[in-house]
Amino acid sequence: MNLITFDKTTKRPVTRDSKPFITVSKNGKFNFSQGARRLLGLNDGDRAILHQDAVFRSDWYMEITRNENGYKIVLGKTDTRFTCTRIAVEIFKSIGRQPQKMSFPIASRQSLVGNMHLWVIETKKPL
Questions:
Q1: pLDDT tens digits, one per residue of 13-55
Q2: pTM listed for this prediction
């Protein structure tokens, strides 16, 4: 018989491979996953501006900026977030869902929309 031993000396560090997504709650809290925080390269002083396609209303885009008109992103030890109830309600309305708590993937590359490079929030593929 060949045994595999598990004790303190054989412990391996746990690594989490977090996918880039954003969780939106009905109270307007937008939480970024650790993968999203890395992908977007978020730093102190960053702000988020969200954009909705006027024709395809369920298409949403995010801009990370230093513009004072953006929503301040709070970089906590355990979470990264910003808050805006109005945008959360609009997102849920645009996808035909009652306000609740849902997570949406963030595209792995920016898309050129008009003359802006924006991150796609994949609202058609909730997690």
A1: 655 567 999 999 999 999 999 999 999 999 999 999 999 999 9
A2: 0.83
Look at the alpha carbons of 51, 125, 57, 98 in this order and tell me if their dihedral is positive or negative.
Answer: negative
State the Cα angle at 87 between 109 and 123, rounded to 5°: 45
CA distance 114 to 60: 14
Dist. CA 92–CA 44, nearest whole Å: 28
SS3 122: coil
Name the strand (E) or helix (H) holding 88: helix 85-94
Return the SS3 of 37.
helix
